[in-house]
């Protein structure tokens, strides 16, 4: 499994989102409080962020544990952003792809992360792979289930689906092909956050204070008020000011 989060709000140092809270994503790499599967997220990490006036995000990813990266403290101190997606990784299977297998995955203006595991990977999704264009398969960043899920989502986005359609249709399709999969997906374009719950936890909270903003995360980063747990089998669509929750349909047997 993994832990991930997305932030929309005023420009802040990345450290305010990643490392400063008492139970931050940094701490969740070795001591998650709500993680249902796995105990340590030490198989890589990544952070993606948007700079003012540039719709294409930047990323910083590493193959090792977040606590062992000597460059992150300086990066987190000086880089500021109002839109962030970050994740710490617990690999489902051993993978030779290093940092390429660490979320967030990116394409155009989008950042994507997967918290979960695809049952029977990779054989269970052979039929879905056959439905993707060859360039989507040959262009996979890594040979892991999360990278393949991103290929499915990205293909739908490129075909004109909106973020909610791309995530919900991918979850339903994969859950039908690989029952028992855990498919908590997280997607942002720097202005919105879209996510699914399918097998693990997710919470959302408006930012405290007057400034509009939203935080969506696998688990709360502090014990403050305002956190709301998202029910399992739910699609979340959020902006800086609003959250919409929609039940996800179970796949047809």
UniProtKB/TrEMBL annotation:
<dbReference type="Pfam" id="PF13230">
    <property type="entry name" value="GATase_4"/>
</dbReference>
<comment type="pathway">
    <text>Amino-acid biosynthesis; ergothioneine biosynthesis.</text>
</comment>
<comment type="function">
    <text>Catalyzes the hydrolysis of the gamma-glutamyl amide bond of hercynyl-gamma-L-glutamyl-L-cysteine sulfoxide to produce hercynylcysteine sulfoxide, a step in the biosynthesis pathway of ergothioneine.</text>
</comment>
<protein>
    <recommendedName>
        <fullName>Gamma-glutamyl-hercynylcysteine sulfoxide hydrolase</fullName>
        <ecNumber>3.5.1.118</ecNumber>
    </recommendedName>
</protein>
<keyword id="KW-0315">Glutamine amidotransferase</keyword>
<dbReference type="InterPro" id="IPR026869">
    <property type="entry name" value="EgtC-like"/>
</dbReference>
<dbReference type="InterPro" id="IPR032889">
    <property type="entry name" value="EgtC_Actinobacteria"/>
</dbReference>
<keyword id="KW-0378">Hydrolase</keyword>
<dbReference type="InterPro" id="IPR052373">
    <property type="entry name" value="Gamma-glu_amide_hydrolase"/>
</dbReference>
<dbReference type="InterPro" id="IPR029055">
    <property type="entry name" value="Ntn_hydrolases_N"/>
</dbReference>
<dbReference type="InterPro" id="IPR017808">
    <property type="entry name" value="EgtC"/>
</dbReference>
